[in-house]
Amino acid sequence: MSVLLEVRNITKTFGGLAAVQDLSLAVGKGEILGLIGPNGSGKTTFFNVISSFLPPDRGQVIFDGREITALKPHVVTSLGLARTFQHPKPLLELTATKTSALRPSCETAKARKRPKLPGKF
């Protein structure tokens, strides 16, 4: 199986506190990998680094053979690597299937301010 996502020696600190320290992993194409840990263990920070919402202090992120460590989040998303955020308010007007089909958009900031709901599925 070929590697789709590789993370090499990622470290991210905040004020001297290491949220993620020297973490490496590889995820193959078609593989499903879970990341578990207690609150405050660095899971969200790790996802923020992988998706370029936070720069790592050290290490590399390689997606589909291309280093993406220093790319902007919208560029990473356009390459096919996206993350979702927890939304405390459910989308009551959508079915579970339609909600799961929502995906990040690479639109301009002005366009992102307008709420959009998915069309036909």
Fold blueprint:
Blueprint: E1 3-14, E2 17-28, H1 43-50, E3 58-63, E4 66-67, H2 73-78, H3 96-100, H4 109-113
Antiparallel strand pairs: 1-2, 1-3, 3-4
Summarize the structure.
The chain has helices at 43-50, 73-78, 96-100, 109-113, and strands spanning 3-14, 17-28, 58-63, 66-67.
Structural summary, described in words:
This protein is an alpha+beta fold. It has a domain at 3-84: Rossmann fold, CATH 3.40.50.300. It has four helices and four strands. It has helices at residues 43-50, 73-78, 96-100, 109-113; strands at 3-14, 17-28, 58-63, 66-67. The protein has a four-stranded antiparallel sheet with strand order 2-1-3-4, with helices on one face. The protein is globular and about 45 Å long. Mean pLDDT is 84; it is low at 107-112.
Helical content (DSSP H or I, runs of 4+): 10-25%
The low-pLDDT segments are 107-112
Q: Which of globular, elongated, flat, extended, rod-shaped describes the shape?
A: globular
Q: Largest beta sheet, briefly?
A: 4 strands, antiparallel
CATH architecture descriptor name of the domain at 3-84: 3-Layer(aba) Sandwich
Number of helices, counting only DSSP H or I runs of 4 residues or more? 4
Structural class category: alpha+beta
Quickly list its features.
four-stranded antiparallel beta sheet, 121 residues, alpha+beta, globular, 26% strand, single chain, 4 helices, Rossmann fold
